[in-house]
Amino acid sequence: MNGKLNLTTVKLQNFATFRNQTIDFSTNFNTIVGETGSGKSLILDALQMSFGARADKKLVRRDAEFATIEVVFSCHSEKAQAYFDDIGYPFEDDIVIKRVIYNSGKSKSFLNYQSCPVCILSLVARKFVDLVGQFENQKLLSEEYQLKLLDNYAGLDKTFKKYEEEFNKLTNFESQLIDLQERKSRSLERKDFLEFQLIELNKLDPSETDEKELREKKDSILEFEERKKVYSSLSHIISESEGSLLNKISQAQREVSQLTNTDALYDRFENIKSELEDISFEVSKSLDSDELDSDITEVVDRLDIYQKLKRKYNTDTSGLIATKQKYQDEFNNIEVIDSEITKLILNISKVSDSCHRIALELHNERLKQASILSKNLTALIHDLNMEGAVIDLRISKNEHLNAKGISHLSFFAQTNPGEGYHPIKNIASGGELSRILLALRQVLSQSGSISVFLFDEIDTGVGGETALSIGKALAKVSESSQVIAITHLPQIAYCSDHMILVNKSPIVADDNTRTESKVRHVSKEEMEPVIKEMQVL
Prior knowledge:
The chain has helices spanning 40-50, 78-86, 118-128, 143-154, 157-204, 208-240, 245-257, 263-287, 296-313, 317-383, 424-427, 430-444, 464-477, 490-494, 527-536; strands at residues 5-15, 18-24, 29-34, 66-75, 94-102, 107-111, 114-115, 129-132, 390-402, 405-414, 422-423, 452-456, 482-486, 498-509, 512-523. The protein is α/β, with parallel strands linked by helices.
């Protein structure tokens, strides 16, 4: 077997007509058979929900509060184990997916016994499981899907991943360039604004220490000027006015000097005069002091600027400092936009060259592999009773890079000899598309991470030898991948290794009759009578 990942068990409880059933699968080719309406497609519905499809409350069995779907996969692949480790849902033995669907319409999802969003289940399913339903083959018509299949076939996954990384880098750089260019166009007006604000803030150069010192200086100047007023008044009284004390003392001395025997009194006046002169000198000295030779107007003006800017920016002095730094940083960033744009353009050129080189490498390999795959698919669809049909995968070169490179893939087919080649979406019937898709599965089951293929009545509209050919092709796919096919054709069932027979019947319990679907596992050795019944039907 493929050693990747295999579906081993599906447990259904209160799910539609399934009350409590466990369905086991073999590692190779499984068929799910039964009469129309027996519940075959319900199993597929349950699998789809376990793979992230929208939960439908209508599928909760009547009178039950909830339905549960539990899906178990065995895994012996180190790469698969690493994948689940990387997404945060490691496992030890088996991979377990569980959905709980409530009759209210709500649901819960679990992966490896951890609660998880349904998008994670979808990611897991897309990586490891491929569902081919009656309408699923329409995605074969998508050119993007076709190119992905070709890359898978050609083993270009590593090369494409390398291209994808470079292309994502390129688009990221281009997005940054657009953003920078838009910022540059907006920044011219913003730059003028910032420059004006910075002139104002830089002129002040706000500092908490500076503001504190200004306040202290203001108080000191005011106090000093008050003292000067007093000293000036004293100077006026002592020496500067006509009626100053010194003049009065001198006048008194002159009067005393006219008397006799008044030397002692005269000396006393002289002492008073000398003392007043000393005081006058000290007062004059204080008046002439440059101890606070600062203009109060300058100090008050700077303090007023502080107050004005604090009101303007609705902040305190520390906020002014932060604002100044913020504006300066923004201004500096605007200044370097041009250099950043130049650097980005160089990076874009470098990464673009790398993308073109890898894209060309991919393109050339795709050209070669498209020819080989065309021949292989043609041979395989001949085995599926499409004799004379030819598949032609055509690769052309796009003018510009895109997420897939520079290659454009067109899927052409000639279903009847001599009728010419046409795009497959214009000529192929549903049955032909199904067989072409099956041929692709035969090729792609040998490689890639897909290890479980689900086919929902891919045999619709065919029979006889064509149905047998499809059965053999499915068996071929199952040699390297697990195959599970819902079918109503005995030719398909005949080629399977394990059969799951679904029956639906009324069950009477407590005077109530309820319909219940049950499964019976049929081994290869026990299939003959079941197949005969299918032939009769």
